[in-house]
Amino acid sequence: MIRHRPTGSGHPYATTEDQRVPAFPVDGDPLELRVRAAPSVRSVVCEWTVDGGPPVVLDLAPVRASDGADAGGGHLAAAQARAARGPGSWATRTPPLRAGHRYAYRFRATSDGGGRTTRWYEVTAAAWSESGGTLTVEGTDRVVAGSVAWLAGGEGPRRVRFDLALGEGEHVVGFGERYDAVDQRGRALDAVVFEQYKGQGRHARTYLPMPFALVVGGEAGWGLHVATSARTWYDVGASTPGRLRVEAEADGPELTLRLYDGDPVKVLGAFLADVGMPTELPPWVFRLWASGNEWNTQERVLAEMDRHRDLDIPVGALVIEAWSDESTFTAFRGARYEPGEEPHRLGDYRFPADGPWPDPKGMVDELHARDVKVLLWQIPLMRMRPHPSGQAAVDAATAVRRGLVVREQDGRPYRNRGWWFPLALMPDLSSAEVRDWWTARRRYLVEEVGVDGFKTDGGEHAWGHDLRYADGRRGADGNGLFPVHYARAFGDLLRSCGKAPVTFSRAGFAGSQPHGAFWAGDEDSTWEAYRSSVIAGITASACGVVYWGWDLAGFSGDVPSAELYLRAAGTSAFMPIMQYHSEFNHHRSPSRDRTPWNIAERTGDERVLPVFRRFAHLRERLVPYLAEQARVAVEGGPPLMRGLFFDHPADPLIWRYPLQYKLGDALLVVPVVEPGASQVRAYVPAGEWVDVWTGAPVSGAREVTLPAPIDRPPVLCAADHWPRLASVFATSRG
Q1: Which of 281, 509, 529, 603 lies deepest, with the highest CB count within 10 Å?
Q2: Alpha carbons 669 and 343: distance in angstroms, whole number
Q3: How far is CA 414 from CA 66, 186, 399, 482, 591, in A?
Q4: Helix ranges (DSSP H) in 276-424
Q5: Percent of the chain scored above 90 by pLDDT?
Q6: Which of 275, 353, 316, 165 is nearest to 510 (CA)?
Q7: What does the DSSP assignment read for 189-231?
Q8: Catalytic: 460?
Q9: Per-residue pLDDT for 79 more than 90?
């Protein structure tokens, strides 16, 4: 066996042991040509030709296998590390490639059993020039004269780049959900959907990128939208102060750049008019969400909800992750039924009394009677390892036979190249037919079982330029849209059943704004992760995401300290979505659940339960205000959670305190993100404010020190809103 994939797996940040590097060379680049070969292979050579001339033979040398990357702790880390490892490869290096020439190569391997020769592969080197395509600018043209260049090779344009002038005092916020900084000026980044398992801020990667940014400050505000679903890169004054360099993969000889003028609210409104306005969700999404990956039986789920009730900690939404058979992701684990191509109804299933889920509908009815909504976890894949059987085998065979899956360039079904559910098939949700087929198998869960929403996890599995979609897109411009189609599919299912389109996603792109709620993804229980998550909320909201949250205090690794847990809970009580969640830990003891009672037991801190209870009750009283302010955002107003630059874009002092934010028009939130704090420095913008815990007045346009007891996170209310909100905090002040 010998394998060569010219562009590798399509991983946006790493190469593989069987590809050429770089995959898309530029004039002057040599290539490293790699193959992966069976252990029986004794030698490998490459035949290398230029412009059809006689081949030159290049010898390949064996390369030792990688040990894989350090993925950190957590049960998913092992899968990530396994995917990074592989058998050793063979490699050689070519002479530098020159633009204007055509190169071809193939490999010959010799083994004990004979030899094998691959097909010919072709490659050209691209070069930058002023010609090659057309950049169309809509709005006030801010493109620096002479900065537009196209990278073109033998197959046509590959990339386009251009510069935009940045003025003194201008700050750049956006590019989707970001974890490393609110203001990206002085940094370099890209926009591509990627599953970075923990440490998103350290790696400057994101599940939810967007080719959009606000430019705030200076003489006048503006914003940019690179109107493409392909990958983009941004050098925000990192290399050249005063220049924002944009580079985009070219999915054709034309690219549109939309430039908007105005304050942040106006600019964001113009962007949302292009990509889609948010959809209003029901008020119950603002109540506390509860989740744990080890809640894998009906008995366990109801026991956890009993604890909420018995401890007087109100909960409004329950996310059940470990409910399914982990094969079809449509049937409850332990259910008995006959496989078939037609979607099943509830009556087709039998639930053994001694099984893990003896009465799913009865359970949901019971939870509804307690005023708790129910969401079920989903993944947009058809698992193929281990080899599927039963209904999973029927679904996979049907999808392949009917052409319902994403395909590779050669027509073969795409097999997931990522580390989570490797080699799984992926439904082509760019097609309305496939979306309907996929969700029809889950319709009984809504219509008959009565669930209220879906956690649409894992929308980041589309890797590689060689993918092909039913809507005509290729991997380069179609992969980023996959999570948009995914959330849309489940939102449409819920609507068709008369329910609100409540989906809970971590991946997305421009165009995701109309499709449900989002959370910040997988993270450890550390103060660093806490700070990164606050940044993520501020930046996601700056791009039009209204309903956003995170796994408060993190979900992975050992449980957080009581201080971190309560600080995170206090901040989350003043975020759009308040949720706790914990990673699977193989049911080992001690428990790593992030329930307040488990944190209290694990840490021995007697403050945890009463303080968390207080936050949960406060959250209940905040629901009407949050629903009202979300409606303002959905109807074109400023975001529900928003950085201070939305309301005070001309105030230079707000940038000294980037983690402060507004929650609606009334509330100013100052997260406590360092351990051991009893007070915090804060900036209070212009206006008159009231401390929500004491009722004391606070004058704005100045830096202040605010008290920060563990049970009273620093929050101020605009004085003109205080008369209507004072009662919300009255009990808390008692």
Answers
A1: 529
A2: 47
A3: 25, 38, 12, 14, 38
A4: 298-310, 360-369, 390-401
A5: 94
A6: 275
A7: EEE------S-HHHHT--SSEEEEEEEESSSS-EEEEE--SS-
A8: yes
A9: no
pLDDT tens digit sequence for 678-695: 999 999 999 999 999 999
Distance CA 615, CA 580 (A): 13
Given the structure tokens 């002057």, which residue do they identify?
28
Structure tokens at 235: 């050098």
| Contact call for residues 536 and 550 (beta carbons, < 8 A) | yes
Q: How many CB atoms lie within 10 A of CB 79?
A: 17
Determine which one of 457, 477, 524, 551 is catalytic.
457
- CB 309: neighbour CB atoms within 10 A? 12
End-to-end Cα spacing for the chain: 74
Contact 682, 660 (CB under 8 A): yes
> Are the C-beta atoms of 246 and 236 separated by less than 8 Å?
no
Arithmetic mean of pLDDT, 623-645: 98
Q: What is the DSSP letter of 54?
A: -
Catalytic, out of 460, 477, 551, 563 = 460
C-alpha 551/C-alpha 555 separation (Å) is 6
Q: Which residue has the tokens 């908007």?
A: 260
Residue 733: is its pLDDT beyond 90?
Answer: no
Closest CA to 516 of 418, 378, 314, 369: 378
pLDDT tens-digit readout, 11-53: 999 999 999 999 999 999 999 999 999 999 999 999 999 999 9
Q: Which of 180, 522, 551, 691 is catalytic?
A: 522
CB atoms within 10 A of CB 124: 20
Residue 49's alpha-carbon distances to 30, 152, 621, in angstroms, are: 14, 21, 73
- Two tokens, residue 693: 């815990």
The model's pLDDT over 505-528, given as tens digits with 9 standing for 90+, comes to: 999 999 999 999 999 999 999 999
How many Å apart are CA 508 and CA 515, to the nearest integer? 9
Residue 67 pLDDT > 70: no
Q: How many CA atoms lie within 13 A of 260 on its CB side?
A: 23
CB burial string 542-559: b at 16+ within 10 A, e below: bbbbbbbbbbbbbbbbeb
Cα-only R_g, the chain: 27
CA–CA separation, 381 and 691 (whole Å): 49
- Strand-pairing partners, residue 247, are 161, 233
User: Contact at 8 Å (CB) between 29 and 96?
Assistant: yes
Cβ neighbourhood burial of 466 (10 Å; 0-12, 13-18, 19+): middle
Give CA–CA dist 717/567, Å, rounded: 19
Q: Maximum distance among all alpha carbons in the chain?
A: 88
The first and second tokens of residue 292, run together, are: 């744990």
Amino acid identity of 217?
Answer: G
Is 522 annotated in the active site? yes
C-alpha span between 72 and 79 (Å, rounded): 11
Looking at residues 190-205, what average pLDDT do you find?
97
Instruction: Please tell me the chain's helix, strand, coil percentages from 3-state DSSP, rounded to the nearest 5.
Output: 25, 25, 45
Confidence of residue 483 (pLDDT cuts 50, 70, 90): very high
Give the pairing of strands 254-261 and 209-216. unpaired
Is 112 one of the annotated active-site residues of the chain?
A: no
Mean pLDDT of 469-478: 97
Rounded-to-integer distance, Cα 211 and Cα 226, Å: 5
By C-alpha distance, which of 673, 349, 291, 266 is closest to 519?
291
CA distance 207 to 254: 27
